Amino acid sequence: MPETTPGATTGATIELEGLTKRYPGNPQPAVENVSMEIRAGETVILVGPSGCGKSTTLKMINRLIEPSGGRIRIDGEDVTDIDPVRLRRKVGYAIQSSGLFPHMTVAQNIALVPKMIGWSKTRIRARVEEMLDLVGLDPGEFHGRYPRRLSGGQQQRVGVARALAADPPVLLMDEPFGAVDPITRDHLQDELIRLQHELHKTIVFVTHDFDEAIKLGDRIAVLRERSHIAQFDTPEAILTNPADDFVSGFVGAGAALKRLNLTRVRDVEITDYPTVTVDDPLQHIFGLLRAGGTNEILLLDRRGRPYKWLRRGDLMRAKGSLARAGTLVNDTVTRDATLRDALEAVLTDNAGRVAVTGRRGEYTGVVDMETLMNSVHELLEEDRLDALEHRHELEEARSGQTHSEQEGADGPGGEAAKA
Amino acid sequence: MNFWDFLGSRHQQLLTDAYQHASAVFQCMVAATVLGVLIGVVTYRSEWAGNLATTVTSGILTIPSLAMIGLLIPVVGLGVPPTVTALTLYGLLPIVRNAIVGLRGVDPSLVDAAKGIGMSRAARLLRVELPLAWPPILTGIRVSTQMLMGIAAIAAFASGPGLGNEIFRGIASLGSKNALNQVLAGTLGIIILALLFDAAYVLLGRLTISRGIRA
């Protein structure tokens, strides 16, 4: 893995205060009085139905859309009135369908911002290589390519590399993965998570896909029309304790299933299972099966990878031939897989368990249905308690402000309008 | 005297005329390109200004060239000035129109991206919008040049430079033994020059249009 430059800039705080956008000739503001505090190094997702003003809100942060009212502070500095060009060089920007300039090579695209802020040629060259490496593209191969010779996913990676090239503390992403196929999107999301682990930027990410929000966000702001914040909280809290009908409508059915996406296999109990390897003498395998305590053992191949499930009697029926006995293992999960992946694997495997493997595919344990059910129950219960506590605190802290806001603009009638 | 003998005896004069013809067209094209792209850049953002520029320049094109040069003589005098003025004005339309179409055709999300990564107005125009609009602009320049090659022949009417002089002399002395040769030499010369220019533009396109957007 490439090392990031020592002293690389990590995130900055962003404060939005009463941000409003009015368009002439339209009595209703497009975005009304958005206040939000985003902590340094945090990934915040703005999610909401189309037309709710989430993109407008994002574009006001780098003033692609000039706010009609309110303040923006980045790292404490009020940037509402500074030269927008200066502001934008501190704020990376990645958009849907990448926005790469087709007449420039990948390297030229990435070098744009560093060039504008006057880095030396050698520093820019090194940085371009570093960025390509960072987003998982081979510098030698992609350096001189033009964007039209890249796949959608690769273009998007270059787009992110360009946004991060000058090492801005803040990264704004406007539905960046909206135009790629679901598999690529999944990959890109994983990459972004890994990248953020290394870089700790402050990321504000707009999407209309709630599952994407859950996957990527440290905190999620669910927006309703005019960018009113319906709920701004951790994914866990929103899933288990949606603030109102609008939010639960947006979370959609299956909150408990979605919750499975937030927990990894390594967080639950992985049980041990009796195993034998293909090189063990048959006698030993028979003995183990006959000794009782278990109906089934897992047969590993020579490299210790799960190979077959062997039941009592399987060997007899196959007349003692390991090659013909038992059922092949058709799905395994790693410790980094989500519980959802694990559940999927358990469901497709008819015996209700799945083998967990390590980095090179070697057996490390087994997760079964019961473990999954128990852990989900525990998780949901924990979340519920957390959320209640959190909500209580918030309510106390915010009661005054919330009251005035609700009475002012958003009467009780608007509550469930979009739910 | 047959055509080849005529060429042999007059090649000095013909080459001078051809050189002057090419040089006049080239210089007028440079002026028309600079002016045309400028007009395009200034007007493409606004619906009515862009349309106005296109309408005015196409209006100019409808004035018969002979009349245009004739009308210019009392204003700027004889010789080179009316030629250059007329040619530059005629050359504008294809360039202005293609510049406006090209600049308006740049994907708005790219302009947004350019703004978003902190490019100034000038940088956006020079590094993103114009390079992307360059292929249609170059096509406009090519069309303009072909047109000016022919129109430049009329310049001889105002004692301007170029191969038009051969044609005019020939027409004036119709019936004399070299009349046809003169007209033919002038016309062929113009066609050859036009082809040479076109080849040069193909080369220019090769050199200046980024491989990333070349068709």
From TrEMBL, chain A:
Annotated SUPFAM superfamilies: CBS-domain pair (SSF54631), P-loop containing nucleoside triphosphate hydrolases (SSF52540)
Key word Repeat present: yes
Gene Ontology cellular-component annotations: membrane
Biased composition (Gly residues): 410-419
Keywords: ATP-binding, Nucleotide-binding, Repeat, Transport
Span list, region Disordered: 393-419
Record keyword Acetylation present: no
Molecular function per GO: ABC-type quaternary ammonium compound transporting activity; ATP binding; ATP hydrolysis activity
CDD domains, alphabetized: ABC_OpuCA_Osmoprotection
GO biological process assignments: glycine betaine transport
Occurrences of domain ABC transporter (ranges): 14-251
Matching Gene3D superfamilies: CBS-domain, P-loop containing nucleotide triphosphate hydrolases
Enzyme Commission number, as recorded: 7.6.2.9
UniProt record similarity statement: Belongs to the ABC transporter superfamily.
Protein name, UniProt field: ABC-type quaternary amine transporter
Species for this entry: Streptomyces tagetis
TrEMBL record, chain B:
ABC transmembrane type-1 domain sequence ranges: 18-201
InterPro entries: ABC_transp_perm/SBD, MetI-like, MetI-like_sf
BP term (GO), one: transmembrane transport
Superkingdom of this protein's organism: Bacteria
Subcellular location per the Swiss-Prot or TrEMBL entry: Cell membrane; Membrane
GO cellular component, one term: plasma membrane
Database matches in CDD domains: TM_PBP2
Keyword terms: Membrane, Transmembrane, Transmembrane helix, Transport
Transmembrane segments: 24-44, 56-80, 183-204
Membrane topology: Multi-pass membrane protein
UniProt-listed PANTHER family: GLYCINE BETAINE/L-PROLINE TRANSPORT SYSTEM PERMEASE PROTEIN PROW, OSMOPROTECTANT IMPORT PERMEASE PROTEIN OSMW
Family (UniProt): Belongs to the binding-protein-dependent transport system permease family.
Official protein name in the record: ABC transporter permease
